[in-house]
Specification:
single chain, alpha/beta, Rossmann fold, 2 domains, about 30% helix, binds threonylcarbamoyladenylate, binds magnesium ion
């Protein structure tokens, strides 16, 4: 527990300067990125990073992504392999996280890597994230700003309802427009997809000129955060539903008469942007049983289906 009151900061120069000051003092600040809100701490400060795990109630085997203001800074922390260079040039700043061999003198807390000899790095494409990172000037460890096992936040209000009172501040930068987390590719050896996300896999394959190996097996995750029930609203979810039974709340997609609809027009980009917000809404409505329309398996549909499968997975 960091503090009893969570400050809401504006996204102007004053707000981002205050946020950078809190990070410098070893505090916890949530800030918007183009994917979801992150919960940031100085990645070099063990106590600060431990604060992230504490605030989230996150299992300690789950390593964190380091966020940097500029792509040129990454070589201070990791070895850039040739495929990683190609991907960074094509997609940074943006919704891509690269896992790379960590440099011995990276100076990053072991809690960030959870003991692995690789490090996940990302340069976000969001003016407020960039302003906070640039004002701070160092590496910021930031998982999604939700309590562990709960839905990722896409608005400052989601952060406050999940972590209010447990973190120092939230910089309010409005809605996240991508709405799902970054795509994670490990370039430690041959490129491997660890998590589907905001950048479509096809775009990554086109950039690399080869098919991407996949390693998303939830039973043997090499992205240890990929536990099956990670994205879970309170209600029980039934996927690929073509109707809702009387006791169910329908989360629709396309031209169906649902209580909430990810995209009535059947647009996957809009559905991705709405996904976590609507899962939060279902929680707020107290929905106990949720029927979800089928989502097509192409483009961002892979990431959406991946999130829904995890949300629907059996849990204790
Ligand atoms: O879009 C995003 O990526 C957001 C925003 C805030 O940047 N962050 C995010 O972080 O989704 P988080 O902590 O919720 O998910 C990070 C994932 C986890 O599944 C973790 O296991 C994996 O990245 N990861 C981190 N470091 C890793 C490493 N060295 N090797 C393999 N997987 C790693
Ligand atoms: Mg997360």
């Amino acid at each position: 527990m960091k503090s009893s009151k969570t400050k809401i900061l504006g996204s102007d120069d004053i707000g981002t300067a205050v946020a950078a000051g809190i990070l410098r003092d070893g505090g916890l600040v949530s800030f918007p990125t183009e994917t979801v809100y992150g919960l940031g701490a100085d990645a070099r400060n063990d106590t600060a990073v431990a604060g992230i795990y504490a605030a989230k109630g996150r299992p300690s085997f789950n390593p964190l992504i380091v966020h940097l203001a500029d792509a040129e800074k990454v070589t201070d922390y990791v070895e850039m392999t040739p495929p990683a260079q190609k991907l960074a040039a094509a997609f940074w700043p943006g919704a891509l996280t690269l896992v790379l061999p960590i440099k011995p003198d990276a100076g990053v807390s072991k809690l960030v890597t959870a003991g692995l000899n690789s490090l996940a790095v990302r340069v976000p494409d969001h003016p407020v994230a960039h302003a906070v990172l640039a004002a701070f000037g160092g590496p910021v460890a930031a998982p999604s700003a939700n309590p562990s096992g709960r839905i990722s936040p896409t608005q400052a209000g989601h952060v406050v309802s999940g972590l209010g009172g447990r973190i120092d501040a939230v910089v309010d930068g409005g809605d996240c427009n991508v709405g799902v987390e970054s795509t994670i590719v490990s370039c430690v050896d041959q490129p491997v997809l660890l998590r589907a996300g905001g950048i479509p896999v096809t775009a990554i394959e086109a950039c690399l000129g080869l098919p991407l190996r996949r390693d998303e097996n939830p039973d043997a995750p090499s992205a240890p955060g990929q536990i099956a029930s990670h994205y879970a609203p309170q209600g029980k979810m039934r996927l690929n539903a073509s109707y809702a039974a009387p006791h169910e709340t329908w989360l629709g997609f396309g031209a169906v008469d649902a209580v909430l609809n990810l995209s009535p027009a059947g647009d996957l980009t809009i559905a991705a942007a709405n996904l976590f917000g609507m899962l939060h809404e279902l929680d707020a409505m107290g929905a106990k049983h949720i029927a979800v329309s089928p989502i097509p398996h192409h483009g961002l549909g892979h990431a959406i289906n991946d999130r829904l499968r995890r949300a629907a997975a059996p849990r204790d």
